[in-house]
Amino acid sequence: MALKAQVIYDFTAEPGNNELTVKEGETITITNQNIGGGWIEAQNSRGEVGLVPEDYIELGKQFPAFQGAATTTPTPSVGNVASSDLAFFDAYAPASTPATNQASNGNDPWSVWNADPSGGSNNNWASNPEGTQTGKTAADPWSSVSQGHPQAYQGPDIYPYPYLIDYTGAEDDEWDDEWDDMKSTGGYAESESGESGAMQRGGAHASMKIKFPGFSKSGPELYLLCKQIAKGKDKLPIYIGEVGPVWSYPEPQLDCVVADPKKGSKMYGLKSYIEYQITPSNTNRTVNHRYKHFDWLYERLLDKFGSAIPIPSLPDKQVTGRFDEEFIKMRMERLQGWMTRMCRHPIVSSSEVFQLFLTYKDEKDWKMGKRKAEKDETVGVMIFTTIEPEAPDLDPTEVEQKCEQFSRFTKAMDDGVKEILTVGNEHWKRCTGPLPKEYQRIGKAFQNLSSVFTSSGYQGESTLTDAMTAAGKTYEEIAQLVAEQPRKDLHFLMETNNEYKGLLGCFPDTIGVHKAAIDKWKEADKLVATSKITPQDKGTMAKRVSTMSYSLQAEMNHFHSNRIYDYNRVMQLYLEEQVKFYETIAAKLRQAHGQFTTM
User: Fold this and answer.
1) d(CA 373, CA 367)
2) Which family does it belong to (predicted)?
3) 391 vs 107 pLDDT, higher one
4) Last residue of one domain, picked from the residues 41, 59, 77
5) How far apart are CA 487 and CA 501, in angstroms?
6) Among 13, 263, 359, 387, which is most exposed with the fewest C-beta within 10 angstroms?
7) Is 466 found in the same domain as 334?
């Protein structure tokens, strides 16, 4: 029985990666469904065999082969191992469970921010802030737009316009896991905390999951009404500084370098991946990680700290071109930015899971540390049980005012950042498109006129024609400078704002936790009246709401401190490069000007 499948999306094979290029509407024959990791092996009508993502095809019916015909397709081998022998990998493949969008605003206390007549559909960098040229709507905490298939968003080449398209897509080789513990039934070992569900993602379905900023969805009442706080936890102190509540900052501040990306392979060379070297400042010893390990760290940090600390998403995955040199460079740059921001945070950087990521000694140490992190019960709102403000309790009314103030600021800054991204994208496209062509046309026109002057035969013409030709070439050189300039200055301004866009997108959820806690406290009198809680419980709730408020204020003060540093730095760099750019153009124009003489 030959199993046929209909291709529902175009897929372009990566050279040297044992993949098969297929086109939408094409019928292919499945030769091996047991590859795992969201891939199948298939043969096209030309007899070519290779790997295809499962989500790019729709399985059809089995058709009996005619007697006497070649009823079996020769099984390609890798080295000395036949592909059919690789079926044991299927036990290690994640179960294909469709991911669900968990960013619904149905119960979001800040859903008023989503009051957009477009329903969020206009929120793309092509027409509105942070959209893409291809019309992809970016993940936005104030909208819940469904995500289509990643192949639909490939659009034009992203270079030299790296801000015109999101790097989203199914990169299944990131999800198979040689180091992760597996259940006997196959698939990822499930986190016993049961909060994030991150380790239950499956195959290509999983890698297409939209990563909205968020937090573990346990309600604040889990913390507010907790009868007894567990003892022996590492405490997170909050002090009152010059600017108000602040976290305790370690000395010296942790830093790390992400560098030296190398291509590796697995499954006997069937699949490839990129591995990065990370060198932390506290050990100066290099550790190696793939993107999926960064993703695991993100999920753990989000699960543990997301209710109190905004954890921005990682740079997205890529369907095609993921081994392209420019893409690898940009991903490494963005991973460096993400790691730097995590290193700067005193709570995140000193956490056990983050230190594991940076300092594990060997594979055994990594596996044991991962297992311990996935069993951590101090996640979601229970992180507040570890926070100890060294200050008097706040009045809940004051807490509510702080929440409103922070929400207004973060929403206003989010709008401002998106405006810069929109204007920057338009300027980038103009600098690398129409504007250089205008300078080239000016230069060509000067040189054409110089040729006309030369044809006059007049004896005293050479000085003028040489100067005209030189002026034309000067404008051609300026055209080249204009086209190259965005990479030297605008790139860094855009990257900083893109990073802050992701960070700001986390605040609605973080602030929403505090808002929900205040709402629960407001119900305390009714709960006391109905004997559901005691007056002592009400007092405990007020004290814990105060603790949550101190953590929010400490986090906002941390955010403001970083914001002031980051924008001072990036604006200085941008303006310094702009000054150099215009000084270079001015020098070229002065040189051209000096070649003309007055009679």
Assistant:
1) 10
2) Belongs to the sorting nexin family.
3) 391
4) 59
5) 20
6) 263
7) no
Same domain, 375 and 410: no
> Does the pLDDT of residue 103 top 90, yes or no?
no
102 burial via Cβ count (<10 Å: 0-12, 13-18, 19+): middle
Beta-strand ranges (E) seen in 282-340 are 287-290
Asked whether residue 101 is domain-assigned, the answer is no
> How many angstroms separate the CA atoms of 511 and 576, rounded?
37
CA distances from residue 93 to 36, 53, 88, 173, 175 in whole angstroms, order as listed? 5, 13, 10, 10, 8
The mean per-residue pLDDT over the stretch 443-463 comes to: 89
Please, are residues 173 and 166 in contact by the beta-carbon 8 Å criterion?
no
The C-alpha atoms of residue 108 and residue 515 are separated, in whole angstroms, by 10
Asked, as a colleague might, if the bond just before 252 is cis with ω within 30 of 0, I would say: yes
Q: What angle do helix axes 396-431 and 535-593 make, rounded to 10 degrees? A: 20
For residues 520 and 501, membership in a common domain is answered with yes
Instruction: Indicate the annotated binding residues.
Output: 290, 292, 331
Residue 90 and residue 34 in contact, taking contact as beta carbons nearer than 8 Å:
yes
Q: What's the CA dihedral at 320, 324, 327, 329 to 10 degrees?
A: 160
C-alpha closest to that of 145 among 131, 165, 161, 127: 131
- Write the DSSP string, 325-341: HHHHHHHHHHHHHHHHH
Among the three residues 365, 391, 417, which one is the final residue of a domain in this structure? 391
Instruction: Give the up-direction half-sphere exposure of residue 70: CA atoms within 13 A in the CB hemisphere.
Output: 4
Beta bridge partners of residue 49, listed in sequence order:
43
Distance set, CA 200 to CA 91, 163, 196, 373 (Å): 14, 31, 9, 16
Q: Is the residue at 471 inside a domain? A: yes
CB 54 within 8 A of CB 95: no
DSSP 484-542: HHHHHTHHHHHHHHHHHHHHHTTHHHHHHHHHHHHHHHHTHHHHHHTTSS-HHHHHHHH
Long-range contacts at 153-157 (CB < 8 A, ≥ 24 apart): 154/319, 154/320
Closest Cα to residue 543, out of 564, 527, 575, 521?
Answer: 521
Residue of 116 and 204 predicted with greater confidence: 116
Whether residue 359 sits in one domain with residue 289: yes
Cβ atoms within 10 Å of 471's Cβ, excluding its own: 22
Query: Do 298 and 406 fall into the same domain?
Result: no
Q: What's residue 88's pLDDT?
A: 28
Euclidean distance between CA atoms 68 and 71, whole angstroms:
8
Instruction: Please count the other Cβ atoms lying within 10 Å of the Cβ belonging to residue 249.
Output: 17
Residues in Cβ contact with 27 at an 8 Å cutoff, skipping those fewer than 6 apart: 4, 5, 6, 7, 45, 60
**85 in a structural domain:** no
pLDDT value for 507: 92
pLDDT digits (tens, 9 = 90+) for 279-322: 999 999 999 999 989 999 999 999 999 999 999 998 876 544 45
The DSSP code for 182 is: B
| Residue 543 is assigned to a structural domain of this protein | yes
Sign of torsion over alpha carbons 454, 459, 462, 468:
negative
